[in-house]
Amino acid sequence: MAQIEVRNLCKSFRDDAVLKGLSLSVDKGEIVALFGPSGTGKTVLLRLLAGIYAPDDGTIGLRGRDASGSPPEKRGIGMAFQNFALFPHMTARDNIASALTARKMDAAKIQRKVGAVARLLKIDHVLGHSPRELSNGQKQRTALARALVGEPDILLLDDPLRNVDAKLRYEMRLELPTLLKRAGSTVLYVTQDFKEAMALGDRIAVLLDGAIAQCDTPARIYAEPVCIGVARLFGDPTLNLVEVQPQLVDDVPEVRVGGAAIRLPASYAAAVGGNFTLGLRPESLHLVDGHAPGTIAVDLVAVTPLNEKSVLLFTMDGGNELLASEAGDRGAPRRIGPSRLALDLDTVLLFDRDSGRRFIPAGKVGAKS
């Protein structure tokens, strides 16, 4: 049974329609990362679930029951707000403990639970401080600790690592899923960071244009995006896009990229004659020696080393640019100037130029939306 079940949810503020028939289901014990650009309504959805806002239309089900009209305090939901919402007259310790104190839990047990979550989030040294004495990162972790300490069965986290420094954010991406799984919580986790969404979510729900554009596993979201809008949100560097018109040459579908003829798998035959945008992930482009068929003549313009990888900028015939990435240390520095690129055809993405929907090759099952 789904712990969170949202159907055709709509919410507007004056003339601004934020959510437009949004539907989403989250199973018991599942972590779903709610991901999308700023301003798409992620926080609005959490506030609707928490009962802070009332929907204009649609239904919200919690634990298999209709939550319509139920006040926030009756919903049994833990939530960490993006704006912290800490009690200014309480210490960090008392803020974290407030939900447990309200339940009249034993003081020794409260102390143990608060200490454990504070050590995990590395704020045990500031438990005696008031909110005004905390940095934004410490406030963020205090709000997160308050949401986690009560081990609620439904947990809404609104970008809880946003103000945390890079090192701690990386550590928390590793540790937080284990903590949440151990608690057995059903979690809707809002983030604007695609890496965080991929690291934390059992599934990722991509919010675009007021609705969930796609909800699927991180691997399928990346490899099989339903549309160009979803595809462009994932990857660092982002997706390369080239306009193409597939043609049938010697009974094989073929596109031209930078003047080179690229033969696609036979499963793309139905795309022949259409207008498409070819999507190439940077890691699917590889520098090669020689002039083998199906390779693209390019000029290497710049190389940016980023420790774990290098990003390479190329220009093609016609002036269009391509970005490629190479993992790790490749030894001798790349020589700027004429080069050739090969494509990994297994990772090619093809999008209809008018609708933006991904073309699904024959014999493949479409990605879940």
Explain the layout of strands and helices.
Layout: E1 2-13, E2 16-27, E3 31-35, H1 42-50, E4 57-62, E5 65-66, E6 77-80, H2 92-102, H3 107-120, H4 136-149, E7 154-158, H5 166-183, E8 186-191, H6 194-200, E9 203-208, E10 211-216, H7 218-223, H8 228-231, E11 240-244, E12 247-249, E13 252-257, E14 260-263, E15 276-280, E16 285-288, E17 296-305, E18 309-316, E19 321-327, E20 337-343, E21 349-352
Parallel strand pairs: 3-8, 3-9, 6-7, 7-8
Antiparallel strand pairs: 1-2, 1-4, 4-5, 9-10, 11-15, 12-13, 13-14, 15-21, 16-20, 17-18, 17-20, 18-19
Note down, in words, how this protein is organized.
This protein is an alpha+beta fold. It folds into two domains: about 220 residues, Rossmann fold, CATH 3.40.50.300; about 110 residues, Nucleic acid-binding proteins (OB fold (Dihydrolipoamide Acetyltransferase, E2P)). It is about 20% helix and about 35% strand. It has eight helices and 21 strands. A six-stranded mixed sheet has the order 6-7-8-3-9-10, with helices on both faces. It has a five-stranded antiparallel sheet with strand order 16-20-17-18-19, with no helix packed on it. It has a four-stranded antiparallel sheet with strand order 2-1-4-5, with helices on one face. Helix 2 crosses helix 3, helix 2 runs parallel beside helix 4 and helix 3 crosses helix 4. The protein is globular, with a radius of gyration of 24 Å. The two termini are about 20 Å apart.
Question: Which structural traits does this protein have?
Answer:
369 residues, alpha+beta, Rossmann fold, OB fold (Dihydrolipoamide Acetyltransferase, E2P), five-stranded antiparallel beta sheet, 21 strands, globular
